[in-house]
Amino acid sequence: MLFNPLARRTTSRGADDINYMLTPSPAAHQTAKLVQELQTIAHQAGHPQPLLIALDQENGGVNSLFDEDYICQFPSSMGQAAAGSAELAYKVAKATATEVSAVGVNLILGPVLDVLTNARYQPLGVRATGDDPQEVSQYGIAAMNGYKDAGVATCGKHFPSYGNLDFLGSSLDIPIITQTLEELSLSALVPFRNAIATGNLDAMFVGGCGIANPSMNVNHACLSDQVVDELLRNELGFTGVAISECLEMEVLRNEIGVKTGTVMAVEAGCDLVLLCRAYDVQLEAISGLKLGVENELLTKDRIYTSLQRVLRMKSSCTSWHKALNPPGITLLSKIHSSHLSLSMKAYDDSITVMRDNEKLLPLNESMHQEEELLLLTPLVKPLPASSMTKNILESKHKSESAPSLHDKWVHRDRGAVMSGEGVFREFGRSLARARLAKLLHTSYTANGVRPVHENLIHRASTIIIVTADANRNLYQAGFTKHVAMMCSMLRSSGQKKSLLVVAVSSPYDFAMDKSIGTYICTFDFTETAMAALVRVLFGDFTPQGSLPGTLRKSKKVLKSRQHWLVEPYNRDRDGKGLDDLLQALARASAPNYRFLQTTNASTFELSSPNIGENHFVVRNSSTQALYGFCATYYTKGTGILGAIFVDPTKRNVSIGRSLHRRALRGLIQKQEIKKLQLGICFPGVFLGIPVDDNAGLKSWFAGCGWDLQSSRRLVNMAIVELSSWGPPEGLLQRIQRAGISFDLIHGLDNAESVLNHVATHANPEVFDLYKFALQETKACGVVRAKSPVDSLLGTVIICSPGSPLHNFIPSLSSSRGELVGGIIAPIVPSTTQANLVLQGLAMMGVRQNKAHKSARGVLSWVPNESYETLLTMGFEVLQAFEEISNAPENVSIIGYFLKQKLTFFQWTDLH
After folding, report:
1. 885: which DSSP letter?
2. pLDDT recorded at residue 745
3. Does residue 263 sit in helix, strand or coil?
4. Among residues 341, 381, 404, 702, which one has the fewest Cβ atoms lying within 10 Å of its Cβ?
5. With contact defined as beta carbons under 8 Å apart, do 420 and 466 qualify?
6. What is the pLDDT of residue 370?
7. Long-range contacts of 42-45 (CB under 8 A, 24+ apart)
8. Where are the beta strands (DSSP E) in 216-310?
9. Could you tell me whether strands 626-635 and 612-619 are parallel, antiparallel, or unpaired per DSSP bridges?
């Protein structure tokens, strides 16, 4: 179970294996001391492994650990996505995890993987990345990798989704999900599925919401085996630790009770039960668990299954040496300066100016010194992660309207509502200091525009209105529209009345309302965010943030016709930039394509006398950063597009189209080109268009003019555990009865029959792949399959771990450092014995891999019609691709060019 140590008396009788979750805590050094004491008690009591110490540290407005001297503030998940860099999100996550790990925390309850399907009206708000499932996946996986690389365990939340909750249709005092499982699968479940597939997600937080749809009727997701065991484990394949929503939720306690709720949660498949507050409630839960076993509602096997999952997670994120010796302030002091710089960059990059139609920014240029500036701010709940909260008065301010169910849900773990004036007071002072002039500042409430507001509006020439979730706090929307109307009327009478609206929480307040001419989003209202806002308002830097998700994409569509300058790739100038681009792509890619981690700039440089190559880049000549890269090859009448990459943060602005256009232009200039091909096996980064086409690549290439009908599927496969592999029963006997024999050759001296065989039955680049392998006599060889009359039936390349081929075929390398053997490009003509020949070649390859002490064997470039035969031998599919071949005239853009006999410059102008 996960308990709050601040609610538990610290004693030495540590018989129960209790884990802990930190809630808003003391200073960093106090937290480190507390955690160390808890781990010491557990160690002395004989616990086999250290305690799990977990906390929410999402950044933005949700931080359980705050110490302004040692712990840095970073933007919310949506703010990080607004910065447009998954690489930045990774760095922020790693910095966050490094800090909390320093005080002894080993499990972060994050990342948030919810998709805001109904973004404007959901209480989760900026805690989520946005409303695009793929973007949520990209940033969620980046954050997860950052946590893991800092040595902290990860927990995705809130399964199955808090992104589209209905607060009106439930008879209970809880929100419900009304989407069907099919609808959830297409959107809300995508980030969870992708995160699980990486293998880096240690735990999953299962929410307490209800589900009501035709196939499922659940009161609390975390108490339902339909959600935990069936959906999460069986359908999504999650094998990690399932953690329940807090069972101290008022509605759950009143309806079910903690004892029964604990049993239901474990019975449903949860491994850890979350209880956050009272010690007596924690004891109640433990007694309930014991009763569940005594009443035979829970078996000991069920308990041991959860125990093994928890122990496995502990072994990945902690040890007694680490738990008993947290570095604490010593480490935090060393890293604080660099983390502060990262924090400032992250906030500066996140600030988003949606519109500035009247060119009011910066204010020091649109306002005269003697003109007055008015700041209007709402009364809001202070952020618990804010140091300013300490100075806010404890007095309560009652709103005229009762809090909504939205507010009860989102703030159910927060304290009393306090005045928001203190939160924005320092912001007002900063504005005044930046102007070197007086500032008018007052709050507004659900009472609307009062005489005091009217008087101040008449005095000021520029008004800044701050909103915080105006779509749910409708008085803010009404107040802002009223002031906007007043400013419009005063302007029509000749007065200067400039209006800026700043959304400090949800960016959707006025995102689509064009009547608000200047609209800025900060994504949270911590001091760091407000400081970045001041710098924007007074021109210290030009904000580059953009709204995440569909709003960003819809804005980029308007730019889709712009042309980027494409340059030839230069190894000395662009090599490091390409390595950086590949690493950014690896973090942003689907789990099946994490082999990009072992891809580098040299992978694409064959330097072969038989294969020509021209590569292109789109780059920032000022920073040397690469925004895109395209690799092209040509050999024996075939022009090949081998790879095309675009920085994940620069997509949908025509970089890919600019590279594609230049690549095709370069290929068709070669007079001997008779065929164009998408995908290449040497170098074998992408054998074609990935079949797992979440990014819509097929549609993209179709839009670029390719005829996708003439395709063939190619597969990369693997045997993950070579040590335990054995040939299928009867395979050797069938091979012997067929009279098939095998031998292994090295070098080109006796390879004439092999090369003739490959030249007859494979593409030209495969021929060069074989020649390259045969020349590497120490690391590579070719296995031949021969008939009883010594005719050649098939061939395959074998390479040992670390061979030169590994550089050109990234799927042969391992980011985990294990030895990987290669079985490359089996060439087996279609005959009645083809499947048996292929199995025999694969078996010989596996034997060679095992002889080379490989831990894993990868079989690359298998035609689709053959791969099912290999599945029966224990191979698993790693990646699948569609190789596309077109005659030049069948690529519509080039065909048009050829028919019209346009010059290349005319063609470029048209497209």
Report:
1. E
2. 96
3. helix
4. 341
5. no
6. 92
7. 42/14, 43/320, 43/323, 43/324, 44/12, 44/14, 45/12, 45/13, 45/14, 45/15
8. 216-218, 241-244
9. antiparallel
- Joined together, the tokens standing for residue 320 give 């007694």
Q: What is the pLDDT of residue 893?
A: 55
**Multiple choice CATH, 352-542, 3.40.1800.10, 3.20.20.150, 3.90.550.10, 3.40.50.1700:** 3.40.50.1700
DSSP strand pairing (820-827 vs 856-863): parallel
Which CATH architecture group holds 567-712+889-910?
3-Layer(aba) Sandwich (3.40)
The Cβ of residue 452 has, within 10 Å, a number of other Cβ atoms equal to 11
Length of the chain: 911
User: What local confidence, expressed as pLDDT, does residue 705 receive?
Assistant: 87
pTM, two decimal places: 0.69
Task: Give the span between the Cα atoms of 783 and 775, in whole angstroms.
Answer: 14
Residue 25 to residue 9: CA distance in whole angstroms? 16
Q: Please report, in angstroms and rounded to a whole number, the separation of the first and last CA atoms in the chain.
A: 61
Residues ≥6 apart with Cβ < 8 Å to 671 = none
Residue 9 pLDDT: 32
Question: Phi and psi (nearest 5°) for 572?
Answer: -65, -40
By CB neighbour count within 10 A (0-12 exposed, 13-18 middle, 19+ buried), where does 371 fall?
A: middle
Q: How many CB atoms lie within 10 A of CB 558?
A: 9
Residue 383 is classified by DSSP as: P
3-state SS, 180-206, equals CHHHHHHCCHHHHHHHHHHCCCCEEEE
Task: Please say whether the beta carbons of 341 and 73 come within 8 A.
Answer: no
Give domain 714-882's CATH superfamily.
Answer: Gcn5-related N-acetyltransferase (GNAT) (3.40.630.30)
What would the DSSP string read from start to end of 729-761? TTHHHHHHHHT-EEEEE-SSTT-HHHHHHHHHH
What are the residue boundaries of the structural domains of the chain, listed by start? Answer: 2-335, 352-542, 567-712+889-910, 714-882
Q: Is the separation of the CB atoms in 565 and 618 below 8 Å?
A: yes
CB 860 within 8 A of CB 833: no
Closest CA to 428 of 395, 396, 472, 388: 388
Query: Going by C-beta distance under 8 Å and a sequence separation of 6 or more, which residues neighbour residue 554?
Result: none
CATH 1.10.1760.20 is held by the domain 2-335: no
Mean pLDDT, each 10-residue run in order, the chain (911 residues): 43 42 67 95 96 93 87 95 93 97 96 86 86 91 95 96 74 76 87 90 94 86 95 94 90 83 96 89 93 92 95 95 95 96 96 94 94 92 50 39 47 37 84 92 94 96 95 93 95 93 94 92 92 96 89 55 88 95 80 82 94 96 92 96 89 88 91 92 94 73 87 94 93 95 94 96 95 94 96 97 95 87 96 95 97 96 90 93 90 52 35 34
For residues 411 and 392, what is the distance between their CA atoms, to the nearest angstrom? 18
**How many whole angstroms separate alpha carbon 582 and alpha carbon 588?**
10
Strands 518-521 and 780-786: unpaired
Q: Residue 806: helix, strand or coil by DSSP?
A: helix
The reply to whether 567-712+889-910 and 714-882 are identical in fold is yes
DSSP 8-state class, residue 705:
T
Secondary structure letter of residue 272 according to DSSP: B
Handedness of CA 702, 707, 708, 712 (dihedral sign): negative
Extract the tokens encoding 407.
């507010």
Integer CA distances (angstroms), 183 to 128, 179, 874, in order: 19, 6, 34
Within 722-855, strands assigned E span 741-745, 780-786, 792-799, 820-827
> In this structure, which amino acid lies at residue 501?
V
What's the Rg (C-alpha) of the chain?
Answer: 31
d(CA 193, CA 186): 11
β-strands 373-378, 352-356: how paired? unpaired
Report the run of H or E that residue 616 belongs to, with start and end.
strand 612-619
